[in-house]
Amino acid sequence: QLQLVESGGGLVQPGGSLRLSCVASGFTLDDYNIGWFRQAPGKEREGVSCISRNGRSTAYDDSVKGRFTISRDNAKNTVYLQMNSLKPEDTAVYYCAAQKTYYSYDSSCRQGGMDYWGKGTLVTVSS
Asked: Is 21 exposed, middle or buried (0-12, 13-18, 19+ CB in 10 A)?
């Protein structure tokens, strides 16, 4: 079966760092844009970051720009989200999702267009 599995979430103090991983199985990850999304308590799921098939094009929500970095290692079928300078408002369940695309440099990710979703990993930022 085709699936994505997130890991790396946990409890961290404000200003701390976490690195999330998303591992794909059952399909070739390099055919897909990969997006990170998050859903905070009482809020709708929102886009965080997106990376193109070849990893050379990335996009970030303004709320995480300069603090988060998305990257991928297609040989390992894995995408990462490095999160630095974490804030309490970053607390959420983080999901990775894959969107099949024919464009090598397209970094767009739409929730309605994602083909596969992970089950999420919880990130809690609190003192």
From this structure: middle
Hey, what are 6's tokens? 């997130």
What is d(CA 58, CA 81) in angstroms, rounded to the nearest whole number?
A: 12
Q: How far apart are CA 72 and CA 15, in angstroms?
A: 24
Residues 59-78 as b/e (b if ≥16 CB within 10 A, e otherwise) read bbeeebeeebbbebebeebb
| 37-84 tens-digit pLDDT | 999 999 999 999 999 999 999 999 999 999 999 999 989 999 999 999
Q: How far is CA 57 from the centre of its chain?
A: 14
